[in-house]
Amino acid sequence: MVCYPVMRATFLAVTRNCWAVHSPFISTLLRHQRILVLRPSGARSAKTDRSYYITTPIFYVNASPHLGHLYSAVMADCFHRYKLLRGYKSKFATGTDEHGLKIQLAAEAAGKDPLTFCTDVSERFRHLFSSSNISFTDYIRTTEQRHHRAVKHFWSVLMNKGLIYKGSYEGWYSTQDESFLASSQVGDALDSSGKKIKVSLESGHELEWMREENYMFRLSMFRSPLLDWLRENPRAIQPDRFYQAVLQWLQDDLPDLSISRQRKRLQWGIPVPGDAEQTIYVWLDALVNYLTVAGYPDKHDQWWSVAHHIVGKDILKFHAIYWPCFLLGAGLPLPQTIHVHSHWTVGGKKMSKSVGNVVDPLECSRFFTTDGMRYFLLRQGVPDSDCDYTEDRAIKLLNAELADSLGGLLNRCTAPGLNPAQIYPSFCPESFPSQPGGRVKMEDYHMLDAVKHLPSVVEQHYKNMHVFKALEAIGTCVRQTNGFVQRHTPWKLDRRISKDQRWLDTIIHVSFECLRIYGTLLQPVVPEISDKLLSRLGVQPDERSWSHINFLPSYQGMDCPFEGRSLGFDSGVLFSRLEGQNVNQRTAKSKKLH
Ligand code: MSP
Fold it and tell me: What is the pLDDT of residue 582?
């Protein structure tokens, strides 16, 4: 059993030999740097700009993709689609992180040359994303030439500004996390043979003592500018608990950072410009991918000034400390927002290959459908805290919310029994007066009010990355609309009586208007289901953006463009109910069959 008692580990701080030699030069540089910090080049007013740039982390190719990876991508895809609906020009980047020691070791273990190995796994990620409707506009691989060029350029900028020096470094190193650790992050543990080892207190990964001469970045210079930026931008890191965590980390000094490794130990990476003996540290290399996609170093201004990152909480330090400091050093604008999410666990443990509890997202999607998978991840995933995955929970949620509630509502209102002409029927103002009266109940007015305000509620939640709250709000309204239909039992009305017919058409018209709003708002989360729903209602592709929402215009005496239109083709139930059957059993069965 592994245990992690906290222990005072020996940790040799960086030897800042160059720092000592050049200290008067550094104070001048610091003064100069402040100017760069305050006026990063190329900054534009993102507020007035209708461009948006969203990124996922780039994924390590040492193992196949799992559900946790898909979650980062689905989240980014949801924001990208939402921005397009709002009329933005949106760029969406994802891709793979292919350099570093652990990739080099994984390729060796697989008996493949590193590039072939990376290509194979990178394609698996690309395949997963394409089949999950992740509508990325750029798929970057760090082994591409355009990226090598960007990284080398970025390095040279930092070097020319005097922010990189050669130093010797000694300390506990985690190959899995590709990172040196401070003494406070190191603990004792026993390995499987009972031998005492050092581990990272955060990740539990084994550490080795490493001593080498390499290049250092003057990270320590940026603690104060970074704090200034954070204080001036309290929403730069969301949710707030992660912003607070970063502020807390910055209470301590920031030691300079080792940003290269000796080439003889790490060949699989970008060589340091002008020093063939050293390889650029994989995290510096990887973070620059965001700039590469933006067009760095030639024409990155348009996209770089509107960049937003999605990251898991395990890589917050790299994105909220190292990355802004590198950017400040290079005189570039900082990201607009770093959206942080928590982890998917299985049996309470973070899903990972080393723990052996990974869930295969492709297998799940085959069962839940692509949209079912997306809906479950975004409905159940809460950025603030970890979420445990169980197939049972997914089945219950999807059956209740997509099959029964939303699907049931559409099915009821489009059924030939209630809607023999298969049209978007008319709204009758006399049947549904603006003041309570006749057959209309108070709850009906409450429902109209809730649906009218739903787009702004959903907008607020999407903006704050609280997709689960947006879906909860939509789900509540769907239930209210079902209640409305149930309350008025339209199937008991007689179409031959004209008053009844007008009331029946009004009930269906109101329900269709509600469904149209739900379908429009759900597009970023479940694009296929939304398309099916809106197509069935006869809503054309160019009538599905946010600006077309305009709920129930007839109620306010305005024309409704949909009134009297034929319904679209009936392509079957919106979401078929799922039967509980263990995924593993299913996989075994389907393997037997083939
Ligand atoms: N390569 C780095 C990122 C470099 S970005 C410049 C990396 N890769 S990763 O493949 O390990 O992780 C990629 C993303 O997947 C991270 O945001 C990480 O948090 C996320 N997830 C990995 N496992 C996860 C879960 N079990 N649950 C949710 N997300 C998880 O880190």
Answer: 53
* pLDDT score of 13 more than 60: no
Mean pLDDT over residues 50-56, rounded?
Answer: 97
List ligand 1's pocket residues with C-beta within 6 A. 57-60, 68-69, 71-72, 97, 286-287, 289, 311-312, 314-315, 343-344, 350-351
- 134, pLDDT greater than 50: yes
Which residue in this structure is represented by tokens 């969406």?
A: 92
pLDDT of residue 585: 54
Considering the four listed CATH numbers 3.30.559.10, 3.30.9.100, 3.40.50.620, 1.20.120.450, the one that applies to the domain covering 10-341 is 3.40.50.620
The residue to mutate among 62, 66, 72, 285, having the most atoms of ligand 1 within 8 angstroms of its beta carbon, is 72
Please name the residue whose Cα sits nearest to atom 23 of ligand 1.
68
Task: Look at ligand 1, atom 15, and give the residue with the nearest C-alpha.
Answer: 69
- Measure 59 CA to ligand 1 centroid, in angstroms: 6
Q: What share of the chain is helix, strand, coil (3-state, %, to 5)?
A: 50, 15, 35
pTM of the model: 0.88
Cα(317) to centroid(ligand 1), Å? 13
CB contact at 8 A, 442 and 536:
no
Residue closest via CA to ligand 1's atom 5 equals 57
- Between residues 582 and 504, which one has the greater pLDDT? 504
Q: What is the mean pLDDT of residues 533-544?
A: 98
Q: What is the mean pLDDT of residues 354-377?
A: 92
Asked if the model's pLDDT at residue 324 lies above 90, the reply is yes
Please tell me the distance between residue 343's alpha carbon and the centre of ligand 1 in angstroms: 9
CA-closest residue to ligand 1 atom 24: 68
Angstrom distance (rounded) from CA 224 to CA 327: 14
- d(C-alpha 333, C-alpha 356), whole Å: 40
116, with CB counted inside 10 A (0-12, 13-18, 19+), is exposed
Task: Say which CATH class 390-556 falls into.
Answer: mainly alpha
pLDDT given for residue 418 in this prediction: 93
- As a whole number of angstroms, the distance between CA 497 and CA 438 comes to 16
Q: Which numbered atom of ligand 1 lies nearest the CA of 381?
A: 28
Q: Could you tell me the residue ranges of all domains in the chain?
A: 10-341, 390-556
